[in-house]
Automatic annotation (TrEMBL):
This is DNA-binding transcriptional LysR family regulator. The keyword Transcription regulation applies. It comes from the Bacteria. GO terms for molecular function: DNA binding; DNA-binding transcription factor activity. Keywords: DNA-binding, Transcription, Transcription regulation. The keyword RNA-binding does not apply. Residues 16-73 form the HTH lysR-type domain. PANTHER family: HTH-TYPE TRANSCRIPTIONAL REGULATOR LEUO-RELATED, TRANSCRIPTIONAL REGULATORY PROTEIN. Gene3D superfamilies: Periplasmic binding protein-like II, Winged helix-like DNA-binding domain superfamily/Winged helix DNA-binding domain. Belongs to the LysR transcriptional regulatory family.
Length: 314
């Protein structure tokens, strides 16, 4: 997994064995001793012994058992950017020096939603063309078969806000995104709800749902839990760009990634409110398969997307 280090990331002890750092990188990805052992092709006891050494080196448990399974400690979460950066720099030492994107004549196929296009692919398109003028990006529709297509080589990357299975794919965390509620100007919820809506206020008004994939995954209903039954959905979209047209003469609202909601509010003169706190933020990833892990062109594109994707607005 590759990533750029963030300012303020905790330092990695200088005396730590490099093999331990490799094991740590997989533990942070998989949150599993068994999964790490399987990915690295070593025994589970060997990973357990390494985890004990890592805990001693960092003076922190790093990985703990909870009622939801194994979870990272706060220190473990904070280490992700530093370890990703170390791994990226280490990999770059062994990367071929012959790769030149200007000589690249290739069509990259990337599965993405319209938000992924807006936030990740669009900012990288101009530098992509300047650096690889003979290459092309083909954006393909999100589908339930996309992971199988990734494994078969039909597509090269997946840009997604869904939680990845990092035991089946490789991934790079791009950013964390919050939600906003988009609605028409003058909507009663804006007059009575304040900046942040309560759950009662949120479920009181009708909703436009944005469903992901062929199965129509609704992240909002999933996070609402038992209260989801109180949410009235009057229309559902496979993408969010058409949402303002449905909201203009309605008391409905739609929940969107914050940066998309802000852009639409500005472009269409609409109102915004924060959703209830139980609608948690979500991570956005770029994923690739083992077959492309050593492909210089694919890794170049991953680095390019990560370098140019827009950071979440404060």
């Amino acid at each position: 997994m590759h990533s750029q280090a963030e300012k303020g990331s905790p330092a990695i002890p200088s005396h730590i064995d490099l093999n331990l750092l490799l094991i740590l990188s997989f533990l942070l990805q998989t949150r599993s001793v068994t999964g790490t052992a399987r990915r690295l092709g070593i025994s589970q006891p060997a990973v357990s012994r390494s985890l004990a050494q890592l805990r001693d080196a960092f003076q922190d448990p790093l990985l703990i058992r909870t009622n939801k399974g194994m979870e990272l400690t706060r220190r473990g979460e904070d280490l992700i950017p530093s370890v990703q950066s170390w791994l990226a720099h280490t990999n770059s030492l062994f990367a071929t020096q012959e790769f030149d994107p200007k000589q690249l004549n290739r069509r990259f196929r990337v599965a993405s939603t319209d938000f992924g296009v807006t936030a990740v692919l669009a900012p990288a398109l101009d530098p992509f063309h300047r650096m690889a003028p003979q290459a092309m990006l083909e954006i393909v529709q999100f589908s339930d078969a996309m992971h199988a297509r990734l494994a078969s080589g039909e597509i090269d990357l997946i840009v997604t806000g869904l939680e990845p299975d990092l035991q089946a794919t490789y991934g790079r965390l791009l950013f964390r995104e919050e939600f906003s509620c988009l609605m028409r100007k003058g909507h009663p919820a804006l007059e009575t709800g304040g900046q942040r809506l309560s759950v009662d206020q949120f479920v009181h008004w009708p909703h436009i749902a944005v469903l992901v994939g062929e199965t129509g995954f609704d992240r909002i209903n999933t996070q609402l839990g038992e209260r989801a039954a109180e949410r009235t959905i009057i229309a559902a979209l496979p993408y969010f760009q058409a949402a303002p047209s449905l909201l203009r003469d309605s008391d409905a609202m739609v929940v969107l990634p914050r940066r998309a909601a802000r852009e639409m509010a500005a472009a269409h003169d609409m109102g915004l409110a924060d959703p209830p706190p139980l609608l948690a933020s979500f991570d956005y990833w770029v994923l690739w398969h083992e077959r492309n892990r050593r492909d210089a062109a694919t890794m170049w594109l991953v680095d390019l997307l990560a370098a140019h994707c827009q950071p979440p607005e404060e």
